[in-house]
Each structure stands twice: as structure tokens, then as C-alpha cells.
Amino acid sequence: MTAKCERCGQTILPDETVCWQCGARLIPTPGTTDTPAADTDESGPPPISWAMLMYLGVSTAVTLLLLIWLMSLLA
Ligand SMILES: [Zn+2]
To answer: I need a labelling partner for 37 at 20 to 30 A (CA). Which of 10, 28, 64, 73 fits?
Structure first.
């Protein structure tokens, strides 16, 4: 059984995952034309959520207020 690269048509060994000629990523199981959706959704790291920013901001503000309160007690 011989597989072929979808991009350049080069004959590929069945156990190869990347085409040695054009570098295209190959489907590990030849015969199926459907690409797995979970493997093609690589858009970098997820963006920082606003909830995380809000949590960090609130925790920082509370810490600063506690420090100010302690300094006012010590003064
Ligand atoms: Zn190729």
C-alpha cells in the first residue's frame, strides 16, 4: 500500500508523518480524506481573559489597601 502527498503528489512511506519533499503534514491513516478538526485548530496560545485580568487587578488593589491600612496603624 503506497500513500501519496496531497500537496506535491510524492510517494510517501506509510509510516511517515511529514512529506520529505514539500514538508506537508500527512494524515497518519491513509485512505481517509477527512482531516481531524482537533489537529488543525492551532492558533497560538489562548488570549488572556478579562476575568483573569479583573481578578489580578482586584487582588492587587486589596493588597495595596491592606498595606496602606497597616502603615496608617503603625504611624
Ligand atoms: Zn509533499
So the answer is: 10
Asked, for residue 27, whether it belongs to a domain, the answer is: yes
pLDDT (tens digit, 9 = 90+) per residue, 24-35?
987 665 555 555
The C-alpha atoms of residue 25 and residue 64 are separated, in whole angstroms, by 51
Tell me which residues have their CB within 5 A of the ion that is ligand 1. 5, 7-8, 10, 19, 21-22, 24
Please work out, in degrees rounded to the nearest 5, the angle formed at the alpha carbon of residue 39 by the alpha carbons of 30 and 47: 170
**Does some domain include residue 41?**
no
**Model pTM?**
0.34
Q: Is residue 68 domain-resident?
A: yes
> If you measure from the C-alpha of residue 27 to the centroid of ligand 1, how many angstroms do you get, rounded to a whole number?
12
Domain of residue 23: give its range.
Answer: 3-31+48-74
